[in-house]
Amino acid sequence: QLSNGSITDNIFPSAPAPLKQPFVIGVAGGTASGKTTVCDMIMSQLHDQRVVLVNQDSFYHSLSAEKLKKVHEYNFDHPDAFNTEVLLSCMEKLRSGQPVSIPSYDFKTHQSIESASPVNPADVIILEGILVLNDPQVRDLMNMKIFVDTDADVRLSRRIQRDTVQRGRNIQNVLEQYTKFVKPSFDEFIQPSMKYADIIIPRGGDNDVAIDLIVQHIRTKLCQHNLCKIYSNIFIISSTFQI
Ligand code: ADP
Ligand code: C5P
Asked: Is the ipTM of this complex over 0.95?
C-alpha cells in the first residue's frame, strides 16, 4: 500500500490517478475574438463525449430601470458587470456532478430573462467568456486555460457586423461603446489575463492545428480517467474472487 493509502495504487502502480471531477476548460479572449467559434469546434470534435458549454454572458447582472436610462454610460466589459458569485456556484455544482439552471441573458434588453436553461453534469465543462481568466476563484476551477488571441481590428469589424445584425445596435453606438469601455477594459482586464493561459490560440477558429492539439489533450485526459475506471473495476472483481 502506498503512502496515500490507496489500495489500487498498490496493485496497479502504473495506473494514472483518476479524474475525480469533470475536466474544466476556460476559454477567454477579447470581444468577437472567436471564443464561441473555438468552443463549437472543440465540441463538434468531441461529439462522442459528454461536453457542456457554460457562457459567462449568462451571468450578466440585469440593469435596473435607472441604469437602463443611462445604458450608454454602463461598462459591460468590467468584472463587476457579472454576477460571479452565481457563476461560481453553478460551476461548483456542475463539477460535483449536479445539474444546474443557467440564467439566460438578452443583449437587446440588457436583462437576465426568466427561462433558465437546465444543464446536466458532463465529463467536460467549457466555460467561455471575455473575463473568465480574470478572477482567481474562477481560474482555480479550470484544468485547462485557453486564450483566443485575434487582432483588435478584426475583432472590431466583426463586432460592428454582429452587434448591428444580431444585437439591435447602430454603428455609431457600437463605436462609442468600443472606444469608451470595450477597448479600455480589454487593455486593463482581458489582455493581462492572457498570462494565465496554458494555450494561446492565434487567429481563433482559423487555427485548426491548435484546435486539434487541444482536442487530443482532452481525449488523453478522458482516456486516463476511463482506464482508471477499468482498473478499479478489475480490482473489485479480483477482490470478490479472493473472498
Ligand atoms: P466571441 O465568442 O469571441 O464573441 P464569435 O466566435 O461569436 O466570437 O465570433 C464573433 C463573430 O465573428 C461571429 O459572427 C462569427 O461568425 C465571426 N467569426 C468568428 N470566427 C471567424 C473566422 N475565423 N472567420 C470569419 N468570421 C468569424
Ligand atoms: O460575445 P462577446 O464575448 O463579444 O460578449 C461580450 C461583449 O458583450 C462585451 O464586450 C460587452 O461590451 C458586450 N455586451 C453588450 N451589451 C450587453 C452585455 C454585453 O454590448 N448588454
From this structure: yes
